[in-house]
Amino acid sequence: MEAGAAGGGSCAAGAEEPVVSLAEVLAENEELEKEARAVLGGSDHERCSYSQGAVKRQALYACSTCTPPGEEPAGICLACSYECHGTHKLFELYTKRNFHCDCGNSKFKNLQCKLFPEKGRVNSGNKYNDNFFGLYCVCKRPYPDPEDEIPDEMIQCIVCEDWFHGRHLGIVPPDSGDFHEMVCQACMSRCSFLWVYTARLAVPTVTKVALVEDTGTVLKVEEIEQKKEIKKENEAENQGKTKDEDQVAQNNEPSTSSGSVCPETAKNNESACKLQELQAKQYLKQDTATFWPHNLRSKLCTCKECMKMYSELDVQFLTDEGDTVLAYENKGTSDQEADRRDPLMDTLSSMNRVQQVELICEYNDLKSELTDYLRRFADDGTVVKREDIQQFFEEFQSRKRRRTDGIQYYCS
Length: 412
Fold this sequence. Notes:
With 412 residues, the chain is of the alpha+beta class. The chain contains 13 helices and 9 strands. Helix content is 38%, strand content 11%.
């Protein structure tokens, strides 16, 4: 953002120079504040999070000054990033799950935490990756990467929590607004049970791409038509279901699948293993990442055997809808909104009706006159200076006094 734009106009280099309005600047600032509240809203900026134990999800940072490459990786909480590492070089890690703040422990040779010095030497439950040294994706590059000229979004895997370039996921991702969570190639290989759910739950992705040689642009050529396949499967399933029900009624005993992953945990259908039922159908494994809608976690089986499998794979969080980044952001935003009070509304609530009308009229006059005043700077392509703003308010107060001199208000 140019300095001139922040003041309500832009430094025009010519007739074609775009002008940034004050409204656009305010809208952009509001959006940035909203994003910041979402990411940081659930974190305390004054107290170290160590006393809370392994925080379910929090904003984290890595200090390149204290733990450079070659040293042990370490993560610090939001408050410690301000108080203990304010002048250091930090890597923003966005959010991580189940993490103890490391600030000042044995990984920091010459630093003691100012906020919570009584930390243990190590946090054995913490998980680290190359992100803690500012490297991301399978390409192990920094972000932003000064040597990468290809525009590409970074997407976080919900399992390993590493960030990946969209072009390095083995498949062209769907549009960012079409999916809520992603599981990378390596995690899909480790958690292969997820492939059983892909045909029914995963967001369709691009299967073929064409590269335009002149521009290097990736074009979408063919999309997986999962919806049609699912519809056909459902129709075939319904037809087969009628026959199976008749046969079961005659034999008066349920049939079981020889390829089951886990036994039924109860005799009723509600406690049957969803994974077992889906595994009986055909599914395809690929060497790609997968993309999922917001309801993935509520659809995974939670029978006794599946929960045991999640525990062995250390992915119990996959059934926790409160673990998602979206849930964290929503909580942060709602907490911040609850703490924020509108001073104008507080002032109005303390006034009688006549005073409220007068204040609203004055506010509208100020808004209208300030807009007209700033528009002149935008039209001329000049920068709004501090003295210009001071002059406006002095003139506004003078005009206000002239308007109100000799005027009397009556209440009926």
